[in-house]
Design a protein that fits this description.
The strands form four sheets. Strands 1, 2, 3, 4, 5, 6 and 18 form a seven-stranded mixed β-sheet that branches. Helix content is 24%, strand content 28%. β13 (201-208) and β14 form a beta hairpin. It contains seven helices and 18 strands. With 322 residues, it is of the alpha/beta class. The chain has helices at 16-27, 62-76, 155-164, 183-191, 252-256, 272-275, 281-301, and strands at residues 5-12, 33-36, 79-82, 87-91, 94-98, 103-111, 115-117, 124-125, 133-134, 147-151, 169-173, 195-198, 201-208, 214-221, 227-234, 236-239, 243-245, 267-269. α1 packs parallel to α2.
């Protein structure tokens, strides 16, 4: 791809929202460029099971659904660029997407970049233990016969437990006296023989123990209301303690205008990057389709002004509505 090539539409992120946007733009005759630093599918790659995505009445594993969406993205004809977006800024009538020294001019951009793990300072993790501490579970897919500790009490923590317990023993460490996940997830996890859930347990320190395993120091609430210190050994530790929007590439100007970004026709947001607690693949896909239709309508309006020629990749047609 040449530096500062021009596209009518750019999409940042190839999760459910980004893929749905690319597919819908293709139906309008708009060939988009999609930027994705990792594998396509977003958090679906780590999901144990997806049961509320239309078309799969019996549910489908996250990786399997990600593979289906990846196939659909490739069939759309969108240009997929495997690179991390370093910045998104405005330059006259264009939005400039920059990766590793390259720049692409886009008349419209859909930000579907999802979320990243939230930074944490607790527990205190020794530097030599960091190679066995993870914020995502992709790298643990091939692990079997081990013991994995998961810190967290939300959907992600219990979903990770279900995935990892197919081949390993898993201990979920919940700091509070109740979980924050869907009741069905907690029930399923507790029914698995290889999953143990420990409530009112706060991990204060993580260090390398004997044999290279992790030694987790925990404080648990005792019967007299005091705290009981205990040690837990594990092969790996997963921190599932929250996520935040992955939007660090936005320029200061665009970030300053963040409250009104959704009203700008040339810059739209879709999916987990703006959904807060409503992070669902089905919601993200619908938002991606909606954003793409808005972009296509904007480009059609500007055909008379020289936008939307064959050179830039958008057809001068209404396209199908369904």
């Amino acid at each position: 791809m040449r530096t500062l090539d021009t596209f009518d539409a750019g999409i940042i992120g190839a999760g459910p929202a980004g893929i749905a946007a690319a597919v819908q733009l293709a139906r309008h005759g708009v060939r988009a460029v999609v930027f994705e630093r990792e594998s396509t599918g977003g958090l679906l790659r780590t999901a144990w099971r997806v049961e509320n995505f239309p078309g799969f009445p019996g549910g489908i594993s996250g990786p399997a659904l990600a593979a289906v969406l990846d196939e659909q993205l490739r069939a759309s004809g969108a240009l997929l660029v495997r690179a991390e977006v370093a910045s998104l800024d405005r330059e006259e009538e264009f939005l400039i997407v920059r990766t590793d020294g390259r720049g692409v001019r886009c008349r419209a951009v859909i930000v579907a970049s999802g979320t990243r793990p939230r930074g944490v300072t607790d527990p205190d993790i020794a530097p030599d233990a960091m190679d066995r501490v993870f914020r995502e579970v992709d790298e643990l897919r091939g692990v079997r016969g081990g013991h994995v500790a998961v810190i967290g009490g939300g959907d992600a923590a219990f979903d990770y437990a279900m995935s990892l317990s197919e081949k390993n023993d898993v201990t979920v460490l919940v700091r509070g006296n109740s979980t924050r996940c869907l009741p069905i997830l907690a029930t399923r996890a507790r029914s698995r023989k290889r999953v143990t859930v420990r409530m009112l347990t706060r991990i204060t320190a993580v260090a390398k123990g004997s044999g290279g395993r992790l030694r987790l120091t925990s404080l648990s609430e005792g019967g007299d209301g005091g705290s009981v210190r205990a040690d837990l050994d594990a092969d790996y530790l997963v921190l599932a303690v929250g996520r935040e929007p992955d939007d660090g590439f936005l320029s200061e100007e665009l970030r300053r205008d963040a409250p009104t970004l959704g009203e700008r026709r040339e810059l739209l947001f879709a999916g987990d990057v703006v959904n807060g607690i409503f992070r669902q693949a089905s919601i993200a896909a619908g938002q991606g389709t909606h954003a793409a239709m808005k972009v296509a309508a904007m480009l059609r309006e500007n055909v008379g002004a020289g936008v939307g020629s064959e050179e830039t990749g958008v057809a001068d047609s209404q396209g199908e509505s369904r």
